Each structure stands twice: as C-alpha cells, then as structure tokens.
Automatic annotation (TrEMBL):
<feature type="transmembrane region" description="Helical">
    <location>
        <begin position="120"/>
        <end position="144"/>
    </location>
</feature>
<dbReference type="InterPro" id="IPR001734">
    <property type="entry name" value="Na/solute_symporter"/>
</dbReference>
<keyword id="KW-0739">Sodium transport</keyword>
<keyword id="KW-1003">Cell membrane</keyword>
<feature type="transmembrane region" description="Helical">
    <location>
        <begin position="454"/>
        <end position="472"/>
    </location>
</feature>
<feature type="transmembrane region" description="Helical">
    <location>
        <begin position="354"/>
        <end position="378"/>
    </location>
</feature>
<keyword id="KW-0812">Transmembrane</keyword>
<feature type="transmembrane region" description="Helical">
    <location>
        <begin position="78"/>
        <end position="99"/>
    </location>
</feature>
<feature type="transmembrane region" description="Helical">
    <location>
        <begin position="296"/>
        <end position="322"/>
    </location>
</feature>
<keyword id="KW-0813">Transport</keyword>
<comment type="similarity">
    <text>Belongs to the sodium:solute symporter (SSF) (TC 2.A.21) family.</text>
</comment>
<protein>
    <submittedName>
        <fullName>Na+/solute symporter</fullName>
    </submittedName>
</protein>
<dbReference type="InterPro" id="IPR050277">
    <property type="entry name" value="Sodium:Solute_Symporter"/>
</dbReference>
<keyword id="KW-0915">Sodium</keyword>
<feature type="transmembrane region" description="Helical">
    <location>
        <begin position="424"/>
        <end position="442"/>
    </location>
</feature>
<dbReference type="GO" id="GO:0015193">
    <property type="term" value="F:L-proline transmembrane transporter activity"/>
</dbReference>
<feature type="transmembrane region" description="Helical">
    <location>
        <begin position="399"/>
        <end position="418"/>
    </location>
</feature>
C-alpha cells in the first residue's frame, strides 16, 4: 500500500510527538524507583484507568479479535473470556482493594505481607520474579509478531515484517525505557483518545457502507446469533471454504465446551488476582484502595465500546467486499491480516493515517506497559535486595534501563521464532496464566497456605506451561488448563502440608491489613481476640453478587457496539436496557459501599 502524503504526515507527527512527550516527562521519573515505576502514587485514578485500557487496546489482540469476529460472528464476543476479560470485574469488585491495601512496590514485595521473611519467603520472591520476566518476554514477543504483520501491509518498502517490527520497537523502546510510569501513563492517555476517535469512525463507515442484507448474504446461517449450543454449527462451505479449516484448527467445533472451559479457567484465574504485569502495577500506583477499585471499573467502561466498533466494522467490511477474493485465495489466506487489509481497502485518506497512528498507539501502549512492568522485579527484588542494597537512585534507574533493553532483545528473539499471533496469545493466556492460577488462588483464600506451598505451586505451574508446547504440541492450551491447575494444586498443597504454617504474627498482620474473605476463621478469631474493636469488612455474599452482575454488565458493553455496527437494533436496545439496570445495581451495591481504605 502506498500511503498518501496526508497519512504519512499524520503518522510522522504522532510518532514524533509521543517520543518527545515521553522524553520530556522522563525528567519526573528519575527521582527514585517509586517515581519511576509507580509515578510516586500521584497520578489520578481515572488517568491510570484510561492508561490501563489503552494498554489492553493492543494491535496484536485487535488483529486477533477482528479475525475472530470475521469467522465466528456475534459468538466471537465470548472468545475474549480466554484472557479472561472479566478478570477486570473481580478486580473492580474486591481484588484491587485487597492488593492496594498492601502499599508495596511490586507483586514480589507484596509476598512479604502474606508470608513474612525467611527462606520460604525468599523462594517466593524468586519464583514471582521469574514468572514476571517470562510473562513480560511473552508479551513482548506477542507485540512483536502483531506489529510486524500490521506494518507490512501499509509501508511501501519491500522488507520483511520482522524488520518493520525491529524498527518500530527501537523507536518505542527509547521513550518507554527513559520515561518510566509517567511517560507510559500520559502517552497512553493521548493514545487512547486517538484510538477512540479512529475506532468510532471506522464503525460509522461500516454502518453507512454495509446493510444487514449484505451481511446476511456474505455469512452462513447463525453468524449473527450471539447464543450457541454444544456445537458451533457455522458452515462456511460455498461462502469462504477456508474458514471451516480455521475453525477446525482453532479447535472450536465444540463451542459450548470451549466456552465452559473458558468460564471455568477464567473464574479461577480471576480469583487468583492479577499476574505481575502492567495491570498490577497500575493498581499499586493508585492513591487509595477505593481509587484502585474505581480505576479497575473504568477500564471496562471506556475500553469495549470503541474497540468493538472498530473490530466489527472492519470485519463486516471485509466480509461483504473482500469475501469473494478471500474465497479465491483458498487456504493460503492469513485471517490475522484481515484488519490491515480492510483498512487498506475501505478507510479514506486522512482517517487512514489517524487509524494507523491509533493502532501504532495501541501497539506502543501494550509494549510500553509490558516493558515498564517487569524490570522493577529484577531491579527492586533482585539487584537492590541481594547485590546493591545501598545503591543510590541514579544507579537503580540506570539498571532499570539496562534490564528493559535486555528484556526487549529476548522478547524479539522469541518473536522471530513464532509463526502467528494466535500461537503466542493462546500460550500466554491459556497455559502461562493457567499455571499461575492455583498458588495465587490459595494465597488469598486459605490461611494455612504458606511460602513453601506458594513456591512449589508456582514452580509446578510454570514448568507445566513451559513444557506443554513440547510434550503436547497438538493439544489446545485451553483444554490443557485442568492439567496445569492440577499440577499447581498438588505442588501448593503438598508443599504447604509438609512444612509449618506461617507465624501468627505474620498471618494476623496480613488479615488485619487486607481483610480478605475465605478460609480465615482461625486467624480472624485471633485478630478479634487481640483487638476487640477490629471490624471485618469483608463480604463474600455481596462481592459474589456484584461479580455476577458486573460480568453481565461488561458483556453488554461488548455486544452493544457489535449490534450497532451490524444494525440489529432491537437486540442492541435490549442490551442497553440490561446495561442500564446492571449499572444502577452496581452503583448501589458496589460503588456506594466502597471504603476509602
């Protein structure tokens, strides 16, 4: 594609503006580690929420969502549960409050509040640092694969996607490494505004360019239906035959089973709390526990409508106007390229530049968030703790720069070995995060769980996720989740029961500070005995109801823009009515009852 000079100017202005803004803001990030990684806990909660939403509005994930919407239609709205997107509801309702009450810098440091000090706690720190680094490298590889595929379509030079990705990575790394959290958050707010304008514009173009009758003619029966049975029952034969092969390769024929597995895995993973990445970092960067909860709620509120307007708009434009050409290409068509192909063919001059700038913004947000989140674990929890406990702030910041660059290099090397976005996406969200679930679920909800149990549970899950592609290469990672969960549970329970419980002092202090619900009765009784005035404000019943209602609320935010773009007006109004009722309920039963601390 040869971009017009207007589009090139827009893209160049955007990239240079972001780079200069990041470098300018970086002066505020160099005070100390708290300023660099958490911005001194001075950023408003709404800015952190928009930043978090922008970090999740990533280019690789958006390319994947467009391919899912193209293939599965309205049923594709369920597929992001593989991440799962409703983990934001668990965070909103109660987990962000629990986490922020710890008042620490990293997830590894948080373990002190739960397991104290000693050999077991040292082992916990080590395994969390390893997981955070592996996770960050996976996300960098994921971003690398997406940006290369995207850039290849738009830029005129005859070079490979990997070379394009290397160039864009080099530019982005400069402002991310230099600027820390200040740079990431404020540039992401700008990026989100650009992305929202472009995304809504694409949805409007699709509404005017495509009629419901054209969509029905270009898709098989059932494509426009949100609900499903045990079998997918989407037959693309005679429409786009190669889609049937993709469905089979995705392992989605038993769609009901896949959604049940996503729900099972998603609930347990969500209850385990956020993995040590950008999501956790933004929670820890808020001013108070109440603001942490509101920040997590804002993510769902602002992210889904614009994103799914663009996803659905590009999908239906490609279906109606590119369907015959895709059919002619047969099995050689790459469905992950639908997003850039659709922009190439259907978005007008000027808006193309804005949209490409927005999608580059989306890539930069995800990449920036991943690169900024992981180095703190190595610098704060390894380098400072074991090698240079008296290091000055300048040394620690320089070490952060070095670690960030090394992680980018390793992530790029992994990205060069991958074939598709789906390959790394499935492994990260189904296998790696699946192995994380057991130990982190128990750490919140079982008083007897100790540091040794956490270490062995995390180690078992991490090893399981790493060897899964080698031992069971043909097994869909999501379907292997029960095995990973079992491995983590066995490691956690055996490691716990074969070693002593944590001291009453550590457990009582943790319970008094965090106030979780779960199997904490013996510790709760001891805390009340020590302090009869202690008020236990945990509420399992209310939180459970709010999670269910919140998940329904979030689903309406996903399906409303889809219904809008495909012009199913009555279902859209029905979704809006459900959204209004659930919003009112959450206002009364969640927001109004949030405590400041």
């Amino acid at each position: 594609m040869n971009l017009s000079w207007i589009d090139i100017v827009i893209i160049a202005l955007y990239l240079s503006s972001v780079l200069l803004l990041g470098l300018y803001i970086s002066k505020r990030a160099s005070t100390d580690l708290d300023s660099y990684f958490l911005a001194g806990k001075r950023i408003p909660w709404w800015a952190l929420g928009v930043s978090n939403a922008s970090g999740m509005f990533d280019i690789a994930g958006t390319m994947w969502l467009v391919s899912m919407c193209f293939v599965y239609g309205l049923k594709g709205a369920w597929l992001p549960w593989i991440w799962p997107i409703f983990n934001q509801i668990f965070l909103m309702v109660y987990l962000s409050v629990w986490l922020r009450r710890s008042n620490v810098l990293t997830g590894a440091e948080w373990l002190k509040t739960r397991f104290g000090s000693g050999k077991g706690a040292e082992m916990c720190h080590l395994i969390v640092v390893i997981f955070a680094v592996v996770s960050a490298i996976g996300f960098i590889a994921y971003s690398f694969k997406g940006i290369g595929k995207f850039a290849e379509i738009f830029f005129p030079w005859d070079i490979s996607p990997d070379v394009y990705a290397l160039i864009i990575f080099a530019v982005t790394t400069i402002y991310v490494v230099k600027g820390g959290m200040y740079s990431v958050v404020f540039t992401e707010v700008l990026q989100f505004v650009i992305m929202t304008i472009a995304a809504v514009a694409v949805g409007v173009i699709a509404i005017y360019a495509v009629s419901p009758e054209q969509i029905a003619a270009a898709t098989p029966e059932g494509w426009g239906n949100l609900f499903f049975s045990w079998h997918l029952d989407l037959n693309w034969t005679g429409v786009i035959d190669s889609v049937n092969d993709k469905i089979q390769n995705d392992g989605m024929e038993l769609f009901g089973l896949m959604v049940m597995m996503m729900l099972f895995k998603g609930i347990l993973s969500s209850m385990a709390g956020p993995v040590p990445n950008y999501d956790m970092q933004r929670i820890l960067a808020t001013k108070t526990p109440k603001e942490a909860a509101k920040m997590s709620g804002l993510v769902s509120l602002v992210m889904f409508f614009p994103r799914y307007m663009m996803v659905t708009g590009l999908s239906v434009l490609a279906l109606v106007y590119m369907g015959p050409d895709i059919q002619a290409q047969g099995e050689h068509f790459d469905f992950e390229q639908i997003l850039p192909y659709a922009i190439n063919n259907f978005v007008p001059v000027g808006l193309t530049g804005l949209l490409i700038a927005g999608l580059l913004a989306a890539f930069m947000s995800t990449f920036a968030a991943s690169v900024n989140a992981a180095p703190v674990y190595i610098v704060n929890d390894i380098f400072k703790r074991y090698f240079k406990p008296n290091a000055d702030n300048a040394t620690l910041i320089k070490m952060s720069y070095l670690v960030s660059c090394l992680l980018v290099i390793i992530g790029v090397c992994l990205g060069l070995m991958l074939e598709s976005i789906n390959e790394i996406m499935q492994w990260i969200f189904a296998a790696l995060f699946g192995g994380y679930a057991a130990a982190n679920l128990l750490k919140w909800h079982w008083w007897r769980f100790n540091a040794y149990g956490y270490f062995w549970g995390m180690l078992a899950g991490l090893i399981g996720s790493l060897v899964l592609p080698l031992v069971l290469p043909d097994v869909q990672p999501l379907m292997a989740f029960p095995l990973l969960l079992l491995a983590g549970l066995v490691g956690s329970v055996v490691g716990t029961l074969m070693t002593p419980a944590e001291s009453d002092e550590v457990l009582c202090q943790f319970y008094r500070q965090v106030r979780p619900w779960g199997f904490w009765t013996p510790i709760r009784n001891k805390v009340i005995q020590q302090d009869p005035s202690f008020i236990d404000d945990s509420n399992f019943g209310r939180d459970s109801i709010n999670v269910v209602v919140g998940t329904i609320w979030q689903l309406t935010l996903v399906i409303m823009p889809i219904y809008l773009v495909v012009q199913q007006w009555w279902p859209m109004l029905g979704a809006f009515a459900v959204m209004a009722v659930t919003t009112w309920f959450l206002k009364k039963n969640w927001l109004d009852k949030l405590e400041e601390s």
